Amino acid sequence: MIKKDHSCIVTAQFRVLEDKNLSNYEAIMDKAWIGVVVTMIFSIVGVIGDYFLKLASNYDNPMKSGWFYIGFALYASTAFGWVFVMRYLKLATIGVLYSVTIILLLSVVGFVFFKEALSPYEIVGIVLAIASLVLLARFA
Question: From CA 136, how far away is CA 139, in angstroms rounded?
């Protein structure tokens, strides 16, 4: 009687499943990174919109200023990016990434273009925001 060894077949099938899972994982990670990049791009667009809204706020009637309409249009355009990103990232991840990016960029814009100073508490808050991003990237 010839004994059949099925372990070789099972091992081969397991390797095929491993390869499929790995490629599936890589595809998910590629989409996640695309989501991260798009989130950051639209965060930048939002900050540019904030810049124009800040310029509009210097007018007696800001909503009649051309700067207001530019800022508004930029803000509205980000909705397209969010719909795309929400397909690939969890809402909590988007929220943290967007918030931290906005905090950092608006702090730079306020300091550079509008000569706004940061208090020590605000600096600590920015450091903690960056720490939250690091934790999210590490454990999410």
Answer: 5
